[in-house]
Amino acid sequence: NNPNLTAAQKAQRLHLLEEVEIRLAYRYGLKDRLQLPGQPSQVRFTALGDVTQAMLDAAYDKIVALDNSPEEFQALLSREFWQDYVTQKYRARFESQGRPYQEALAALHERFSDGSLTASAYDAQAKDLQARLVIEDAALIDALTRQEIAERLLPREPLQTLTDPAERPAFALALSEAQAIGFNGKQYFTTSMPDAGDGQHYLLRVQSPEQSVRSGQQWDCGQA
């Protein structure tokens, strides 16, 4: 309603507002199913983006199809909201990493102020320090994102016991008690495994296809 804006400026602002509403509608509409962090708990006027439930479902299916893919990982790294989430959650890590660069910049400024460093040299060295910090911050975001993904793949529900503990050997664990998870296109089993008795190894009881659940072999799964 700004009378100082031209018709073209008003149309441009309306277009930008619609883009924001659409992005917000998708983020809010998919936050629970995709477990998106840092999203608003409630929004208003998302209907203005004309984002329907069918569109949300289609977007969800497309995202799930890319689950654990390199494309998904890079897309996540490029999202500003995710970068903000990681840097806020691990603020101390980023501050610690950036401290040497800030000190180096302060030292450069002192040398420039007392005339021992020319303006062009100061500008070049300052830009180099800033570029190196950007690279290190990006690498830290990458590492912390992988850590966040790995933590979210861990089971959160109690494991279901399908075999009678009294009918299996001591220090053995039935495969049916493990939680199957998928990561990078492979299947893994996670659980709390008992010590084999020697303080070094665990045993996992895995049934073969032709055996029943209660008649399995004991496999040495390596050192603790």
From TrEMBL:
InterPro entries: NEL_dom. GO terms for molecular function: ubiquitin-protein transferase activity. Coiled coil: none annotated. The lineage of its organism: Eukaryota, Viridiplantae, Streptophyta, Embryophyta, Tracheophyta. GO terms for biological process: protein ubiquitination. Residues 1-164 form the NEL domain. This is Putative TdLSC4 protein. It comes from Triticum turgidum subsp. durum.
